[in-house]
Amino acid sequence: MLDARQLEALAAVIEQGxxxxxxxxxSITLAAVSLRIKALEEHLGQRLLVxxxxxxxxxxxxxxxxxxxxxxxxxADLLGGLQGGAGAKDAARWQSxxxxxxxxxxxxxxxxxxxxxxxxxxxxxEIVIDDQDHTHDALKSGxxxxxxxxxxxxxxxxxxxxxGVMRYRCxxxxxxxxRCRTPRGAVSPHQLLAHPAIIFNRKDxxxxxxxxxxxxxxxxxxxxxxxxxxxxxxRAIELGLGWGMVPEQHLASRPxxxxxxxxxxxxxxxYWQHWEREPLSAQRLTQAVKAAAHAGLPLVxxxxxxxxxTRS
Length: 312
Known about the structure:
Order of helices and strands: HHHEEHHEHEHEEHHEHEHEEEH
Distance between the termini: 40 Å
Number of strands: 11
CATH class of the largest domain: Alpha Beta
Strand content: 15-25%
CATH topology of the largest domain: D-Maltodextrin-Binding Protein, domain 2
Structural class: alpha/beta
Low-confidence stretches: 85-91, 303-309
Helix content: 40-55%
CATH architecture of the largest domain: 3-Layer(aba) Sandwich
């Protein structure tokens, strides 16, 4: 039987980033935190933390952190059920759920789709923004209970459910589009590469995927601006600073942008990976995420494209 106080001490050290902050969060002494961690490691016969300038969890520590988060959610669900009856809504405590999602999904279909659930069941979201090829790392480490990812293969203890396709189109301001075309109206790859690309961050490989899929160019050299915020990224394209890949869902609000190669897309297949055994609140979130994606994204094709290094 695992000691609840020892588990909470371990979770606090990982979540707070050190023994001192964990002691403050738990309102106990630094020595007490150290003793609880030591006792837990001795009980399990393995190290749970790597100590140094920064403290990080071992694989075993990450697994225990995920266990603690599951216990917290299960306890909150149980208390919510016990508080049924008159005044239950006022007495119910807020529950916090951590998820990892790419920025384009958050800005388009995710938040509008889950907002009613969050308000109805008093759920708080902690959103970790990362590239959709890397969000599963946060799930694996126990930092989140679910993630939007391009990883189709379920991780151990998890389920991967298809959400749909995030479709990107290559766009630019009208004057940039005109300069990239030949007198006959065709897009000139040479002219295109003479203009800077607007790129979300250094993990973003959507531009390279577009150039390879539609022009046969593999990782060519071209000038790049980096703008790691959705509004700033799309605004930079509108201002004529360069060309870039914008989600199809965003183009309705950006009427000033034109497609460089009409009809040419880069499709990214997304999945919702989550714990196989979910508490009730997490189950509700999973259902809301799936419904939001199915309403806002094209269906996953039979042979979907999964990109490496797509946008966060």
